[in-house]
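Assemble and predict.
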Amino acid sequence: MKRFWCFFFMFWPIVAFVLCWIAPDMGWWFPSNGPTGMKAASPIGERIDDLYYMILYITTATFVGTQVALGYVLFKGAAMTDEGNEQKVWYSHGSHNLEVIWTIVPACILLFIALYQMDVVKEVRVKSAFPAETKGGTVAIAEVTARQFEWRIRYPGIGPDGKKLPLMPKPQPTDLYTVNDLRVPTGEPSMIILQSGDVQHAFFLPELRVKQDAVPGLDIPVWFEASKSGDYTLLCAELCGWGHYKMKAKLVAQPEADHMEFMRQLTVQQNYDGVPEATNEVAQGEE
Amino acid sequence: MSTVNPAIGTDAGQGHAEEHGHGHGHEHHGSFISTYVFSTDHKMIGKQFLITTLLMLMVGGALALGVRWQLAFRWEAMPFFGMLFKAEGGQISPEFYTMLVTMHASVMIFLVIIPILAGAFGNFLIPLMIGADDMAFPILNMLSYWFMWPAIFCFGASFFCAGYGAAGGWTTYPLLSALYEAAPGSGAAQTFWLFGLTFVGFSSMMGSINYMTTIINMRAPGMTLFRMPLTIWAMFITAILQSFALPVLTAAGFMLVSDRMLGTTFFIPGGIVVNDNDPTVGGGQTLLWQHLFWFYSHPAVYIMLLPAMGMVSDMLACMSRKPIFGYKPMVYSMAAIAGLGFIVWGHHMFTSGMNPALGMTFMVSTVMIALPSAVKVFNWIGTMWGGRLQFNTVMLNCIAFVSMFIVGGLSGIFMAAVPVDIYIHDTYFIVAHFHYVLFGATLFGCFGGIQFWFPKMYGRMMNEKLGKLHFFLTFIGFNGTFFPMHLLGVAGMPRRYADPYLHPYLEHLLPMNQFMTICAILMGCAQFILLFNFFYSRKFGPTCGRNPWNANGLEWTAPSPPGHGNFESVPICFRGPYEYSDPNHTEDFWLQTDQPVKKAGDNPPPSAAH
């Protein structure tokens, strides 16, 4: 029976290992519905994945090592109680050298892991290190307000010169609005200002590896870059009430021209006063 | 065959006081009420805590099954438990689901894990293991148990308020928890919840003061600090953690109650409109709650783990018939975990929008807290290395503890790294991690501890076959339920979603969730074996002597069960608690109270480490 338990304790780490090994093929890995498949859909997301894999390799090595050691100890310890085994128990209170080794080595590895993350943390979070396009975290393309249970998005309007106006902290008459539909240009960093209208929410783009809480009373700048055009999932990741699960929205990344076109159409839609105008070229082509 | 055989081992090594048989134990002048209800005897209080928490474990488990049911068979009427919420049609509505999630966590953390470790094992073991006749403050000790009941009442009353219970998550982040209108469960249910939390806090605080005082002042002669069993070290460090961290949570709880009831705005910013109500007025900060809450609740994670680490160390040494490997490093690493535990709370807030420089600091301290945990794992494996392992229920649970703790510890490194945490924060990866630590480690440690100290509690052995069956099913059910959660987390499935499959990128995870739910049901059913074994063995288990496991600690020199005052005479402690298989000694264990025999070439009484 004791051998059975040894095998029992060795069996499950093998199952766990195999499960993780086949997981990417079985679709139990990073979300793969988006335009980029299982690969992160943003440059910084790819670097986050790299960091993830680095930690995964280190922890897998540790996991395998400790489980093998455990297995060895168990089988050896089980053999000690076999009939006729005269071997004496190893009477030891420990080893100073071993303790020093297995304190210093993991300490170095852990410190390396921690310090190795710093660059990405800085680029994702520290305003002064934001990409040049956001001008140090001052130029946002939209204001996203999370509320129970939807995402309200406010874009700056289009000026007479056909270019986007700057996003003002307070709503302007020229502003454009969408709900649950965030539009950004592809291939360039875009920054949004994240707010909450009621309780706490979290802005989560799984395919882009972006997550930031929307905290009531705070305006939080979040930047990201979609490397490929297409629809991405946007959802809430912080418990915000009964409808938490249904704050379903999309992030649509479009080439710059299409993005501007969408903004123009949005302007026309929003200014539409109910009176059909034959001269309005843009409105004609629409749905 | 095995060295630890309860049937044979009962009278072995009882060098003294054999005539104290069973039966002397219970008798204690006093009425039924003062013996069994308002008892000031630490052993009775410990047992009261143990039985209460085991029953609460079943309640918390039932709530968890509700959660699992919805994730596997969404919007289908729940069998059996469904009749408890008939008004809902037996279905789990989204608001009911958020309540289940909240109350499962609250019951498991505040009414099971914390009280079973500190309350049940702490109370029962501390005086026995240090050779004291009772706690330093017996009445305070009694109160610490009886303050659990208002807490249970408040949490229970929460179920009968609108929304069927608090639904703001066990972390109760404002404003969901601060504004009555924010969610169906944010009304009276949330208020009751907060009072329940406060009462649990009172209970824990009274316990910790008692433990610290007892351990410092009431050790038997010869029981120096570095001759204390690691269980006692763990309880001591836990008590310190608790008494320093808890006041912050209590204060925060009162601040939130006053925000809700007295119109203050500690956590409520102005201009917030919830459910078309008037905008709020105020200048509070919701992040303040998160800081205060995690300032307690992160150390609380170690409060929920350290005592189990200590207990497992004791059991592993005994069942390996070997001294603990690196006693002092074990103590120092627990102290390091406790110390670092105070400066890592920010890792729960990496995505909260706090200052990024702060996030980087918390990342380094959080990654480094894995170090003492790693040292402990290495020492546990070192303890088993070359020992005569006894594969009984106690040992199996302890091996499971080590094995599961490795997983829980390693997965912690992922979320300690800010960039990776940005992705996996609030996904099932986190759920997997803390279940591996709190269930995989702590609860398996407790299951082992129940089996190990049950003979001392009731003078009878628990059934070994049932114990192994319970372990087997729980271990399989546990891994089947929680290991796939790592994969769900990597797949980006957020926590606390009543219906994750609404989102196309999660649709294909339904079969996996169904598999997990079946495992969870199996695991839930297996706990009835434990309950049956517990109550059956208490009445019908084979009686045992003082030291059925041939262990070394002072508690094994007292009668089983110990009478009022624990020991017939004050025990004198001559050595550390882990002198198993000493070649200079005839038996493979050496009670702490055994007089050293002077021999030529004898070592001085061994000190504990190195």
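The domain at 343-356+389-543 of chain B is CATH 1.20.210.10 (Cytochrome C Oxidase; Chain A).
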